[in-house]
Amino acid sequence: MAPYKFLSSKTFEKLEKFEKRVNEMSSQGWKVVNFTSDNGTMVVLFERIR
Length: 50
Hints:
Blueprint (H helix, E strand, L loop, with lengths): L3 E5 L6 H13 L2 E9 L2 E8 L2
Antiparallel strand pairs: 1-3, 2-3
């Protein structure tokens, strides 16, 4: 399994739903490394916690 993953918001996805997906990833052992916004789409970079 790759030690990094990207998660991006979907078109017309509400912020609360995207936050829920980010929190689910962190509860599965992933740590947020960086995040950015690209033309209204949010992108989060996760790293696997070992």
